[in-house]
Amino acid sequence: MQQIIYFFIKNKNFLLFAFLFLIALILTIQSHSYHNSKVISSTNFFSGGIYSARSNVTSYFDLRKENNLLIEENTRLREQLATLKSNIPNPKFEGDILPVFNFTGARVINNNYSKIKNQLTLDKGLKDSLEVDMGVITSKGLVGIINKVSDNYARVQSILNTTSQINAKLKKSNHIGFLTWNTKDPNIVQLIEIPKLAPIAVGDTIVTSGNSSIFPKGILIGTVKDFTVGATDSFTVDVQLFNDMTSLNHVYVIKNLNLLEIENLEKTDDAE
């Protein structure tokens, strides 16, 4: 305590000068707008630098998250591409048509999932070469089929729609049925008319069958949650969707580049 008192006594002149200088500086800043603005500007500069640094750090971690999502999505797409390549059948005769699919990215700007006939709206349309009857998927699985298009937008009939029927199959056994929805749960759809002789177990993967020109073979849909024997002596399968249909953002629209040629060929076969 004595040392502290001695310090103040010894340096009283300097401390008095510093105190008076500080008071003078404060009065000068308060009475002159120029000096005041400079001090505020300097303060803002440093605080802005701190906020900017914090923002950059936040952006960095957000970027890492986005990159991880993109890596995950690209991995799924590569797996789907590999599935498509491995499932292309050998031509039965010269002139067989192997479907070629093109993918266009789009964003969901409206999504219904609580009605019985749910629709989605995409932010792309005719100007982006979108057409009716094109399939829509995400990196995780099936979404629906385009049923109406304007210049800049497209409407999609969701798989959560009582009028939707899409060919799907058990991946491990290739038994084919129709994908429908009973309106009870937006996370679960039904695969009907699976033959009773088909080997099936909870957890089995359901994919598109490829028996149409809309979806390639092997697009992911979901897994078997439960199954029962229906009125037609076939299995009705509850399918837990891979997609969260209540939270859709980025999607891919599938265009079959050989669609017209395939349709013309099939018309020729029907006429014979």
From TrEMBL:
It comes from the Bacteria. Residues 108-255 form the Rod shape-determining protein MreC beta-barrel core domain. InterPro entries: Cell/Rod_1 (IPR042177), Cell/Rod_MreC_2 (IPR042175), MreC (IPR007221), MreC_beta-barrel_core (IPR055342). Residues 60-87 form a coiled coil. Keywords: Cell shape, Coiled coil. Gene3D superfamilies: 6.10.250.2730, Rod shape-determining protein MreC, domain 1 (2.40.10.340), Rod shape-determining protein MreC, domain 2 (2.40.10.350). This is Cell shape-determining protein MreC. The lineage of its organism: Bacteria, Pseudomonadati, Bacteroidota, Flavobacteriia, Flavobacteriales.
